[in-house]
Structure formats: C-alpha cells, structure tokens
Amino acid sequence: MSVLLLLATVITMSEALQCSCNCQVVSRSQWHARTPKEIDYISTPVNMVFIHHTSMDSCFNLTSCIEEMQKIQDFHMDTRGWFDIGYNFLVGEDGRVYVGRSWNREGAHTLHFNRVAIAVSVMGDFMQRLPNNLALDAVKNILDYGVCLGKITPNYRLYGHRDVRETSCPGDKFYQLIQTWKHYSHTKPSPSSIIG
C-alpha cells in the first residue's frame, strides 16, 4: 500500500470516527437485502437531498420494518424492473435507518436527479398524518451524519419529491413539515441545470 493511499485511508477512518449518526443504522445484510442486479456509482458530496414516503405500509418495530424493506425491494426490482431498492436510505417509525443504496450508489428515486442527489424515504403514507418523532429525528440525524462524513455538502438543498415531479410524494402532511426545515429550498432545481 502506498504512503498516500495509507494516509488517505487513515484520514477517512479518522473522519468516520469523529462522526456520530445518533441513530441506529440497519445494514443491508441485517435486513437480508437481495443482491443488486447492477450498481452505478455517484460522486459525493452531493448538494441535494430528496425526501420521499413509500406510500406503502408503516412499520413500528425491527421485525415489521425488515419485512417492509423486503417488500419494497421486491416491488422495486420485480415490478418496476429497477436494479435494487430505489432509495439511498429508508426510515421506519421504529426510529431506525435502513440502508438502501447507501451514500455512493445511484438510486432510482427522483427522475433526472438520481446521479446528483441522495434520497431518504420514510416507510408509510403521510398524506393525512406526519411520521412519528422517532422517524423524523432519524431522518434529520442521517442527513447530519452524511454532512459529517462528507457525503452531503453542508449547504445542501432539501426538496420533497413533488418539487420536481407530479406526485403526492412525500405526502401532504410530511411535505408541509419539511418546508419548515432549515435546508428546504423554495428555489426548485430543473433537470436542465444538472451537469453530467
């Protein structure tokens, strides 16, 4: 191993040790994820984050959230024909963060923005109600963690899925809330502004 590579590895490990997620992260192996059909990588840090809801079932404990993760992955891969589960991270109302495609893999979450953004989706339908506080805290914590790790820029712009597409996602109630969050941007991005 070259000295430069060793130094870069030590610096990366040092940064990771200084960052704390303040949430419990469930790895792909822990929720028994299927192997992706293909993997495309993205460059980080990204300067955009999209918030979604799955518009499927909610889950409130580890067992039911693992089952829901598997249902979502099966739907995305078998019905929609995607390479893998679409989102980078998913959050359950058990307060855990479930790894989807993680930080450096291109997702299938927001058309035209998959290569330049990270997506976090809360499991459930939030048209009529908000995710519980455990889930909301977990979303904020995983984003803070991404900034600390250098995967998301400190001045990132936050959007709801409906900001760039005709969709109800991330649900009326949840969308109203994220518009009050610090990083929410009222200036909508357009696909033509994306380079690469």
UniProtKB/TrEMBL annotation:
Residue ranges constituting the Peptidoglycan recognition protein family domain according to the UniProt record: 23-165
Cross-referenced SMART domains: Ami_2, PGRP
Disulfide bonds: 59-65
CDD domains recorded: PGRP
Cleavable signal peptide: 1-16
InterPro entries linked: Amidase/PGRP_sf, Amidase_domain, Peptidoglycan_recognition, PGRP, PGRP_domain_met/bac
MF terms in GO: N-acetylmuramoyl-L-alanine amidase activity; peptidoglycan binding; zinc ion binding
Keywords: Disulfide bond, Immunity, Innate immunity, Signal
GO biological process: innate immune response; peptidoglycan catabolic process
Pfam families: Amidase_2
Residue intervals of the N-acetylmuramoyl-L-alanine amidase domain: 34-171
Family the entry assigns: Belongs to the N-acetylmuramoyl-L-alanine amidase 2 family.
Protein name: Peptidoglycan-recognition protein
Organism the protein comes from: Octopus sinensis (East Asian common octopus)
